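Action item from last meeting closed. Structure (159 res):
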């Protein structure tokens, strides 16, 4: 996997360090922030491939930040919410359906499940990129197709 970049956001320094440590072995570039406003600024500067964030953040709430990133990227940057405050199916459902989160974990979370989720989301993103042809190939194909469809029409015209 090419080196991917993730943004991890949490107001608690211990949680931030713990989550960062979880991904060091996976050769990911890690960018961190400790509030929602700083996270949004780093998101804009760094263009991460995935964001992990605490729902309860100072300056810009995690749900608002999730919705903002989801809207701007049209869902192309997965966002994983990890929260200690918003517990229960209703919060998870709202985060996934209304705000655009790709996954949702309640603290304390299972480290392996979080890592697996993030790595799967990053892998899905790579698979999609690999499946798409480059623009030159598409243009060449379209050009060839338009020539083929134009040729029979010329033959049908009476002399």
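Sequence:
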């Amino acid at each position: 996997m090419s080196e991917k970049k993730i943004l991890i956001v949490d107001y608690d320094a211990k949680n931030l360090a713990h989550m960062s440590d979880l991904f060091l072995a996976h050769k990911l570039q890690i960018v961190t922030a400790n509030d929602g406003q700083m996270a949004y600024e780093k998101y804009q500067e760094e263009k991460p491939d995935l964001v992990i964030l605490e729902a309860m953040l100072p300056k810009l709430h995690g749900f608002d930040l999730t919705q903002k990133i989801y809207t701007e990227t049209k869902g192309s940057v997965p966002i994983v919410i990890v929260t200690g405050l918003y517990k229960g199916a209703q919060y998870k459902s709202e985060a996934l359906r209304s705000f655009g989160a790709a996954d949702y974990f309640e603290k304390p979370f299972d480290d392996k499940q979080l890592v697996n989720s993030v790595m799967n989301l990053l892998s899905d993103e790579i698979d999609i990129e690999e499946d798409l042809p480059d623009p030159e190939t598409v243009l060449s194909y379209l050009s060839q197709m338009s020539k083929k469809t134009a040729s029979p029409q010329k033959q049908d015209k009476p002399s």
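Note appended to the action item: The chain is about 55% helix and 15% strand.
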